[in-house]
Amino acid sequence: MFLQAEIIRPFGNVTLVDEIDCTQDTHDIEVYPKGASRIENILGVPHRVLEVQAEEGSYIKFRVGKGKNLKPHGSYVLVIDYPDDLPRNYLVRNNAMESKRSFYTGRNGGDCFGAHYVDHNIESLNIPQSGKIEKWTAYMSIMDYTIDKDEDGKNLRSTAKNDGFDLIIAQYNRKQDPNTQGVALSKIYLYEIPNEEQVYAKIHLPPKGLPRRHLFWREEMSDGAMARNDPKIGYYRHKFRQLKMMGMDTYCKDLFEFGHVQHWNPGKAGLYMWDSDDRDVWDSIVKEAADYGLNILPYYEYAGANYMDRNGKPSLGRQLKAEPLNKDIWTDTKNCYTHIWWSEKLRVDITDEDTYEEFKKVIYGTILRYTDQKDNMLGVWIRPRPAQMAVGFADATRARFAKEANNGVAVSREDLRKNKALYDKYIKWWGRKRAEFLVGMRDYMAQNGIKNPIAIIDGDTSEPGDGMDNQRGIITDDPDYWREIFRKPPFNKSNPDDSITDITNKRFINQHWFLSGLKRPSGTWGHWEWHHACPGADPENYHDLKNVWITMTFHRAYSVMDPYCLEMFSNANGGQTLIRHYGLNENNLVKFTRDANGTPQKDEKGNYKFERLCGYAIHDSERAGRACMQSEVLAMANGNPYNIGYLIGSTFTRGFPVAVREFNTNYLALPAVPSEIVKGACADPEVVVRRYRTPNNGTYYAIIHTGYVHKKHVKITFPEDIQNLTIINSGRKISRNKIAIDLKPWQLLSLHSDK
After folding, report:
1. Per-residue model confidence (pLDDT) at position 342
2. Who contacts 728 (Cβ-Cβ below 8 Å, separation ≥6)?
3. Average pLDDT over residues 312-317
4. Chain mean pLDDT for the chain
5. Is the pLDDT of residue 723 over 90?
6. DSSP 8-state code for residue 53
7. What's the CA dihedral at 10, 16, 22, 26 to 10 degrees?
8. What confidence tens digit (pLDDT) does each residue in 391-416 have?
């Protein structure tokens, strides 16, 4: 059976492999807790609705593709029909490719309240809902072996045995997700794509000679399936196809994770480090990514080499050359900045020449030695974890400060503790040294054959990304809605305003609350030095640098509403590097520990005992439908991002590919050159027109619609001197400088004029 492209765009003709009626007890359906679902008519269609539990998570599991002869590494499309009627949250775990993703509708906040490890920047906006049955649609491959629902890496299922794969749709408990109305499912489909190349997005890149924008992701806990695939490169081919389908241009892989080597051979760079198995995988990745026409941007959670030589001498990372300010008075810290001791086993001093020399070797081993792929190498993306590249106060570091920034006058730790002006001067010096390190790495790559290399430092060590100053609880455009929720169980707040940040109050933009939050060092307590382990962003040190950026964190809509904040993160190129942080929702999906009779058990304090519900849960959240691109569109309206990256907790996928591809292809069609807003181009305040001038290749324009609803016949007036104006993706010619155009919610549309 074939389905036409308009049904599940953008995948063209596909073959139906499996169909699940979610209201029926088929496909090895399993509901937890038992009996927690009901059949309900929603929008005229029968649905299975999962009831939200008070204290524990819940899920519905199906076995998809059982007996359907699924092909390892084949290209498929997974489609979930859901009602867009009320706020709901869907945690989708696809064990065929070990992908964990969630999407949420309406005024739901997506991430869970009261997370175990982090505070999420939860944002609830009054997003219009269609009142229709909509589709969550994901491109996927099937691995050689899939995992069962309970634990990652256990209970393996061979695809060759024709056993299908587990698909789990889960939700948090009521306190973690206070306004969800419960998972609701009508149908699930699995389609096969006969020809994978038919799904690749067509990208109209700017002509050679013009600088280009880039889109990429980094996956954290995503390589578990790789070890169970043969050949291993087959696992990464799925990622290359995913990039091509989504209209992205750059592959990024972590080569250090928490300082530990991942899938490359340091020995080939003359480095001695403890490294992972499968040390030659990076060789294959570099070659094949280039064959797919992708750029390559290695990612490094670098903290120095990790080993001990035969004489017991520690390597650079183990020398812990960056030292806390209070090391001399807090002897119980064991030279740690934070209580996360396992993250501090390795640490470098970014002001030390030894760090320069070692990281040059890293660059050689992961970039420069691949002589045939140098044209595909973009540069480096460095993101140290807490304390791994901390502000250091060792004797040698302070001596460098004295020589370079304090007129040769030595300073003690006590001096820095007592003299705030001196301390501030020291912190600014250290920030400049961090930028100088990036410049040194850029120049080293350029001197060794990398064309216009970029060097990026991501100073935000947090998973959900930094929040803003004066932030309280949930961020919303509808405070009254959330006041009522917080007044009721399970919260029972007498003063709910203490848990609400109202973004209709423009003070958060006018006073640049988010910028202040990004520049603020991490909060600390007791004798710990989190503020030195995770220093704030210092974008002012990058304004005059070419091809060197400190990244700007973004996530929710509010994070990209302030044009001044975006402008502050511009460098000499005239644009920004934005990295989208997701909250992971790590290990927050739990169930009661029960006895043989199913009775929840309590500990000695009378609290219910918990355990994992569906293995190690990591769910990156995105809004449903076109709203999934709201933050990116706002970033284009209020700034000029040249690079957009995503920090992902598991195997990357997106559930609304039409909107994603539309943005991505229009974004990459624009050159990475400075832009300006064309004043008076549109009377609608939700429509921004930007102009991008080039010396020899005409002028580019972007029409950017930030509104929530579809608009017809929006009038746009371009400058008088336009000639041969073309909508780039469609090729449609515009002969006049005034047009009336239909605009979808959160839409980016790129155009080009010969003049």
Report:
1. 83
2. 204, 666, 669, 750, 751, 752
3. 91
4. 92
5. no
6. P
7. -160
8. 999 999 999 999 999 999 999 999 99
DSSP line for 734-750: E-SSEEEEEE-TTEEEE
Please state the three-class secondary structure of 173-198 as a single string: CCCCCCCCCCCEECEEEEEECCCHHH
* 594 contacts: CB under 8 Å, gap ≥ 6: 600, 601
The confidence score (pLDDT) of residue 549 equals 98
Which residue, of 199, 229, 259, is where some domain finishes?
Answer: 199
Structural domain boundaries, residue 568:
214-466+520-584+624-669
What are residue 747's phi and psi, to 5 degrees? -120, 140
Position 607 in a domain: no
Cis previous bond, 194, omega within 30: no
**649: in domain:** yes
pLDDT value of position 198: 86
| Contact assessment for residue 650 and residue 99, using Cβ atoms and an 8 Å cutoff | yes
Q: Is the dihedral of CA 25, 30, 33, 34 positive or negative?
A: positive
Which two structure tokens, joined as six digits, stand for 199? 């799904």
Predicted pLDDT of residue 608? 80
Average of pLDDT values for 457-473?
Answer: 90
Q: Is the predicted pLDDT of residue 720 greater than 60, yes or no?
A: yes
Predicted confidence at residue 2, as pLDDT, reads: 39
Q: What pLDDT shows up at residue 196?
A: 86
Are 182 and 277 contained in the same domain?
no
Alpha helical stretches, state H, 376-478: 395-405, 413-418, 420-447
Percent residues over pLDDT 90 in the chain: 76
Phi and psi at 600, nearest 5°, equal -60, 140
pLDDT(695) > 90: yes
Measured CA distances, 393 to 308, 347, 354, 479, 538 (Å): 24, 13, 16, 45, 19
Q: Is 665 inside any structural domain?
A: yes
CATH number at residue 154: 2.60.120.260
CA gap 224, 222 in Å, rounded: 6
| Residue 495 lies inside a defined structural domain of this protein | no
What are the angstrom distances between the C-alpha of 17 and each of 8, 28, 68, 75, 189? Answer: 14, 17, 7, 12, 8
Domain end position, chosen among 669, 704, 727: 669
**What average pLDDT does range 603-612 have in this prediction?**
84
Q: 324-331: which pairs have CB atoms within 8 A and are 24 or more residues apart?
A: 324/390, 324/393, 324/529, 324/532, 325/393, 325/413, 325/416, 325/417, 325/529, 325/532, 326/413, 326/417, 326/527, 326/529, 327/393, 327/413, 328/413, 328/414, 330/527
Q: Which of 241, 257, 252 is nearest to 214 (CA)?
A: 252
User: What is the count of structural domains for the chain?
Assistant: 3
Radius of gyration, alpha carbons of the chain? 26
Please tell me the predicted confidence (pLDDT) of residue 621.
93
Three-class DSSP category at 564: helix
For residues 175 and 302, state if they share a domain: no
By three-state DSSP, how is residue 599 classified? coil
Say which amino acid occupies 83: P
What tokens appear for 728 in the block?
A: 């780039």
Dist. CA 387–CA 530, nearest whole Å = 8
Q: How far apart are the C-alpha atoms of 301 and 543, rounded to whole Å?
A: 24
Q: Are strands 299-300 and 254-257 parallel, antiparallel or unpaired?
A: parallel
The predicted-structure confidence for 636-689, as pLDDT tens digits, reads as follows: 999 999 999 999 988 899 999 999 999 999 999 999 999 999 999 999 999 999
Q: Which CATH number is 634's domain given?
A: 3.20.20
Residues 235-251, mean pLDDT to the nearest whole number:
94
> First CA to last CA across the chain, in angstroms?
49
Give yes or no: residues 329 and 387 share one domain: yes
Whose CA is closest to 463, among 650, 245, 662? 650
Residue 7 pLDDT: 47
